[in-house]
Amino acid sequence: MAANDIPVIDISSLSVDTGERLVNAVHEWGFAFIKGDNTGFAAEAIDHIFELSKIFFQSPVKEKERCAITANNRGWSSMQVETLDPTTQKKGDLKEAFNFGEFVNGKAQQPMPQALVGYDKDIDGFAAQCRNLCMQLLRLFALGLKRPSQPGLEILGPNLEWTSVPVWPRGTEHEPFPPILVNVGDLLSYWTNGFLKSTIHRVVFPPDIEKADRQSIAYFCHPANDTRLTAVPSDLIAQTNASSDRKQGDMTGLKVLTAEEHLRRRLAATYGWDRRLEAVD
């Protein structure tokens, strides 16, 4: 089974059928491609954001270091600073990143690198589109989980083999821009008692394209910090856990974390902040 088999879900219709197909895809893979007229993105806007990204990452290291990432998870992290799977990785991830926090009245609430000065509204507008899309996806997850409504990438596939994730999956080559790749991640997996899969993934550089640049723009949708991550009240989740001898992600009897506590644990593991504190002590 290849990553080319990751389903491409058209979310133009916010229906139960669409929600079920999305849930089935991420239940198996932890990932899904989405497309549709209502994603809210235009090819020109995506091209513009990628151009800003390229300008920033090609800027001098000294300029980027002025905005180095801090414990609030905002700023630039250099190559191999992040370690997303410290239990199995000997070296940090082969990537650098720049994390944005919130914008207030179109202005960033963090130091901005010189390469991005004057583009606050552009980045804030793009983030707002990402958030709107996240709200649509959460509604689809709610429909697919059958719960009541309320006011250079590789992945470790279901067969436990590493498979490449294409930028343009089969059948989308003639679209104005690639379908958007959705990754459930640890928090949503935790929140659904492991039913929605958080899939291990990595970025690799094949030897024949070692010097080529690879860009991606990720938007992380996160609950309010004080949200308690009690398991989503879903009959589907309850039935699956009840019928399985191995209750993947079962949190019964464990302390219920808040969204902030969960994030801080993941950041500490990713950046090794706990280990750095121990070294200082």
Descriptive labels:
281 residues; alpha+beta; three-stranded mixed beta sheet; three-stranded antiparallel beta sheet; 8 helices; 10 strands; globular; disordered C terminus
Task: Explain this structure.
The chain has 281 residues and is of the alpha+beta class. Helices cover 33% and strands 11% of the residues. The chain contains 8 helices and 10 strands. It has helices at 16-28, 43-57, 61-65, 120-144, 185-191, 235-242, 259-271, 273-280; strands spanning 8-10, 31-35, 75-77, 97-99, 103-104, 107-108, 153-156, 162-164, 180-183, 201-203. The strands form 4 sheets. A 3-stranded mixed sheet has the order 1-2-9. Helix 1 (16-28) packs across helix 4 (120-144). The protein is globular. The model is unreliable at 276-281 (pLDDT under 50).
Please specify the SSE layout and strand pairing:
Elements lengths: L7 E3 L5 H13 L2 E5 L7 H15 L3 H5 L9 E3 L19 E3 L3 E2 L2 E2 L11 H25 L8 E4 L5 E3 L15 E4 L1 H7 L9 E3 L31 H8 L16 H13 L1 H8 L1
Parallel strand pairs: 1-2
Antiparallel strand pairs: 2-9, 3-4, 5-6, 7-8, 7-10
Helix pairs in contact: 1-4
* Strand residue percentage: 5-15%
Q: Which structural category do the helix and sheet elements fall into?
A: alpha+beta
Order of helices and strands: EHEHHEEEEHEEEHEHHH
Let me know the largest β-sheet: 3 strands, mixed
Helix coverage percent: 25-40%
Estimate the mean pLDDT confidence: 85
Supply the number of helical segments.
8
- Major sheet: arrangement of strands: 1-2-9
How big is the Rg? 19 Å
Residue windows where pLDDT falls under 50 for at least 5 positions: 276-281
C-alpha termini separation: 48 Å
Quaternary structure classification: single chain
